[in-house]
């Protein structure tokens, strides 16, 4: 299976080095370019057209404008903001500019990897303990709906849950939804954290309860 191409833009060289090392230790990712200014976001998307660009928001230049321009130049590129900016206004402005993921620096390695996998699959990802504040402040109904879906279970997570309920193994799930087995394991870990359980069996039990609650909600909506 081909690697997911990643561009990294951050004006702290040590952060670039750390993220590059982190991603390259996990098979399935290839760093195709790095930069350190808002202008570099645009140039990297123009020249390398990465599948995902991980960018800081506090860099020289107008980062938000650069994000919007980069997406126009390379529409297939998904952008993850990886930032220390914990203000809701920054997150909303980033989402309005076109980012698909918003991950706070200080999050776990697993969370950044999950965010990359989620946006690459066409989903929205927001750091979980920050997302509810963002949703409450969003005025745009479509963005609010996408953000809310990210907080509950993402589309990909629901796919995996349904396959788990059908007794599929990680390998079978990977083949079915065309992702690597390693990525399935990342999702499984994230599901355990999100559903507050400790193992695969408890994920299945929690998933059954989740589906029952969703069915009841849809019935009464």
Write a concise synopsis of the structure shown:
The chain has 221 residues and is an alpha/beta fold. The chain is 60% helix and 13% strand.
| The CATH C-level class name of the largest domain | Alpha Beta
The mean pLDDT is 83
State which percent range the strand residues make up.
Answer: 5-15%
Structural class by sheet pairing and helices: alpha/beta
Which homologous superfamily in CATH is the superfamily of the largest domain?
Answer: Response regulator
Give Rg in angstroms. 17 Å
Number of helical elements? 11
Shape: globular
CATH architectural category of the largest domain: 3-Layer(aba) Sandwich
**Helix share of residues?**
55-70%
Helix and strand run: EHEHEHEHEHEHHHHHH
Largest sheet: 6 strands, parallel
Return the CATH topology of the largest domain.
Rossmann fold
Unreliable residue stretches = none
Q: If strands are numbered along the chain, what order do they take across the biggest sheet? A: 2-1-3-4-5-6
